Amino acid sequence: MTSVTGAGARRVGVFGGTFDPPHIGHLRAAVSVRHTLGLDAVVMVPSGDPWQKRGTRPITPGAIRLEMVRAAAAGLPDIGIEVSEAEVRRAGASFTVDTVAEMRASEPAVQVTVILGADAAALLPTWERVDELKTQVRLAVVRRPGSGFEAPALGSPPVAMVDMERLDVSSSAIRADVARGAPVDVLVPPGVLEVITRHGLYRG
Ligand code: ATP
Ligand code: MG
């Protein structure tokens, strides 16, 4: 990331997730938030160790999930999606509060908006050092029809609600499709499909 200070400070969205694999729902959420809030970029941050998902299912190694997110972003070069390897590189559980601190260290004036899907927003109170995080960032919640999430549940700081259409796609459904041999073309960008195939992911 380039370093910018003063009035030209970048406004950047931080969009974390397991991204196992990244799909059109994630990409569409990134595009919608960037457009609605006028952000300079949205940085997708694959979690190195998604500690809240530990023990629930096998999780694809971070390096491969990072490779998939990079492939997804590379296939859409002009829409302001960037990729951070910070959490995959860092040892131990991945905490957004550490990731934001790391961004600030290399780009002190950066203004960070943490982007959450409605399901992720509901879990925010369980995040590590969430009160500290809230003093450092703005929050944006992607609201999808039927997601049933209400902003006041998050308390302060003010939360930007960003509406997007419902794309009924999830990484879990995509993994299940691959496992039973159903095509996932279009649900994931071609570059992501190439990584899935090359590593033989999700075959069960
Ligand atoms: P899984 O099915 O394994 O839980 P997922 O598809 O929900 O995967 P995650 O990596 O868990 O993907 O989600 C990362 C972020 O993307 C979360 O904030 C989540 O709310 C959001 N998200 C997931 N699916 C969609 C979708 N279809 N549309 C918009 N946002 C989504
Ligand atoms: Mg999920």
Low-pLDDT segments, ≥5 res? none
Order of helices and strands: EHEHEHHEHHEEHH
User: Oligomeric form of this entry?
Assistant: single chain
Which sheet architecture does the biggest sheet show? 6 strands, parallel
Distance between the termini: 37 Å
Strand order, biggest sheet? 3-2-1-4-5-6
Strand runs, count: 6
Counted by DSSP, the helix tally is 8
Evaluate the radius of gyration. 16 Å
Average pLDDT score = 92
Proportion of residues in helical segments? 25-40%
Word description of this protein:
By secondary structure, the protein is an alpha/beta fold. It is 36% helix and 17% strand. The chain is built from eight helices and six strands, in the order βαβαβααβααββαα. The chain has helices spanning 24-37, 62-74, 86-89, 96-106, 118-122, 130-136, 171-179, 190-199; strands at 11-17, 41-46, 81-83, 111-117, 138-143, 159-163. The protein has a six-stranded parallel sheet. Helix 1 (24-37) links the parallel strand 1 (11-17) and strand 2 (41-46). The mean pLDDT is 92. Bound molecules: adenosine-5'-triphosphate and magnesium ion.
